[in-house]
Specification:
three-stranded antiparallel sheet, 544 residues, five-stranded antiparallel sheet, flat, 13 helices, alpha+beta
Length: 544
């Protein structure tokens, strides 16, 4: 595949989503004005929200975007942990290694130079407004740490493979000539000319493309790689870099997709956009009505007013002295009926409440519980919270946090951040390592295990009063270990099953030894008593 073919495929992908870009511009105009440069070009000093009459839609989108990191990626708690997928009986040494690797990965992700917080903050608001985001995960150019970048949706186009996974992405890029020279070695001579000479322009922007596609779709020599990364100088039709990769470096979280499209949408924005437009119109009408009420339009009698009408404080308006005011005031406000303002305000409040529901902000609040509630009532409230919060948390954990953590793990593993392969327990060799996440939804779900354990314990205690044998029907140890694991306790707090069995064997041996000693002591006492009895009998016989 040559340069012309790559550029042609790029133009094809970007051309097909042109109408979608117009929709994104409309969404951004209403809810995310800072990002409203899909089809419009903003200058640095532009007033982002100069086309709006109320900021309420912006505030709701802001609150939803901020809640993603606050609830799912809080820096106050470890929000992810490694685990072997589809297995709950992972060996103890494997659990300890994964806990160590989790801490290691977390430190590298939150290193200041990695820009993880910046990239995910931008991605969160793209996700909230447009239902998708594009974040790259890679090692920095010096190979000293991770680097995360969030890219503008305007500049990215992608497509899926037959499994519904994004495996092809084209990103438009406009770096400066100075940036290209410092980043790549294979630079076109025309770019180097811009850094020296009388016509030097080191800060001019160059149209480039970054392309990540399956290696088999590019050239035969890259077929052994799952993917290939290509940096292309479009202006000079020159390939600056082509490198095979073992992982797809772009994470493209998508909230809610529709069949037949590789692009998704935000269910919050789809529901809120009609109300956002209506709210802007109602707010404008109410503002105009309020302005008329406080500064009403005036009626002036023709030829009676001899000067300009001065309605400001202290202003003087001159009236013809011969005008007879018995015919009516020469200057008076127009009488208007403002009774409709109350209806407008009520309608505005209703729309604001509906928009808050559209952005799921009511569903993000944890259920209120209290000591006066029964266990059944608390359980029902928890179930209702799970039903409301699941549409928000599930795509974020699987498509967003999960993809970020797994891609980061692949990058770190390939670059030796976890040490040598020999340091990894054998039970993890070839295992499918994934991630588990901490969130309010998971906390509620895991808390239910403890509640179920408490209920089973109470039922068991009541039943044992009738029949002691039912204790054999409950695997107490397995239930206890499951509850402890669901609480998020570190593996170091628990002994492995083998260690626990060894401790129990030692306790059984001690108990058996104690019982044996007690038995031997009792036997010796009996023998002593028998001996004394025999001696007494012999004494009696001698006396006779």
């Amino acid at each position: 595949m040559d340069v012309a073919a790559l550029v042609g495929r790029s133009d094809n992908l970007f051309g097909k989503r042109q109408s979608l870009v117009s929709l994104w511009q409309d969404i951004a105009d209403q809810t995310y004005p800072e990002r409203a440069d899909f089809t419009a070009k903003r200058s640095l000093g532009s007033d982002f929200a100069d086309n709006l009459t109320t900021s309420y839609p912006i505030i709701l989108r802001r609150d939803l975007g901020n809640s993603f990191s606050a609830m799912l990626r809080s820096t106050a708690v470890p929000w992810f942990s490694m685990a072997v997928k589809y297995e709950d009986d992972t060996p103890h040494d494997a659990r300890e290694w994964m806990e160590w690797a989790t801490v290691r990965q977390r430190k590298l992700m939150y290193d200041r130079k990695s820009q993880f917080t910046r990239a995910t903050k931008e991605g969160d608001h793209d996700f909230a407004a447009f239902g998708q985001a594009v974040i790259s995960v890679q090692m920095n150019r010096d190979l000293t740490g991770l680097l995360y970048r969030c890219w503008h949706l305007r500049d990215c186009a992608w497509c899926e493979n037959e499994n519904g996974t994004v495996d092809t992405l084209y990103r438009k890029w406009k770096p400066t000539a100075r940036e290209l020279v410092s980043t790549f070695r294979n630079i076109h001579p025309k770019i180097r000319e811009k850094l020296s000479g009388t016509k030097a322009d080191p800060y001019c922007e160059i149209n480039c493309l970054h392309i990540v596609i399956p290696g088999a779709d590019y050239k035969p020599e890259f077929a052994r790689f799952p993917y290939v990364s290509i940096f292309l100088d479009v202006e000079n039709k020159h390939i600056m870099e082509e490198v095979g990769q073992k992982y797809f470096m772009y994470v493209v979280p998508r909230w809610q997709t529709v069949s037949g499209s590789q692009y998704s949408y935000s269910p919050a924005t789809v529901a809120a956009m009609p109300d956002a437009r209506l709210l802007q119109a109602i707010s404008l009408t109410l503002l105009e009505a309020g302005e008329k009420a406080s500064n009403p339009p005036m009626i002036a009698t023709q030829d009676a007013i001899r000067s300009d009408i001065s309605l400001f404080a202290g202003g003087i308006t001159t009236v013809d002295k011969e005008y007879d005011e018995r015919l009516g005031e020469a200057l008076r406000p127009i009488t208007q009926n403002y009774g409709g303002m109350g209806v407008g305000l009520d309608l505005r409040r209703d729309i604001m409440a509906m928009m808050r529901d559209a952005y799921f902000l009511n569903a993000l609040s944890l259920p209120q519980t209290g000591p006066e509630m029964t266990a059944y009532e608390v359980g029902q409230r928890v179930q209702e919270y799970i039903r409301q919060a699941a549409p928000i948390f599930e795509p974020l954990e699987a498509e967003y946090n999960g993809a970020l953590c797994e891609t980061t793990f692949d990058v770190l593993m390939l670059n030796g951040a976890f040490g040598r392969m020999s340091d990894i327990p054998e039970s993890l060799h070839g295992a499918d390592v994934g991630f588990r996440f901490t969130s309010p939804l998971h906390d509620v779900i895991e808390r239910q295990k403890l509640e179920r354990f408490t209920e089973v314990k109470a039922v068991l205690a009541d039943t044992m009063a009738l029949d002691q044998s039912v204790v054999a029907d409950i695997n107490i140890r397995e239930a206890f270990r499951d509850v402890i694991r669901s609480s998020g306790a570190p593996s170091k707090w628990m002994n492995s099953e083998d260690d626990a069995e060894a401790i129990l064997d030692q306790q059984r041996a001690k108990q058996e030894a104690t019982e044996l000693l007690q038995t031997m002591g009792a036997g010796a006492e009996v023998a002593e008593q028998i001996g004394k009895a025999g001696q007494a009998m012999q004494g009696q016989e001698l006396a006779a």
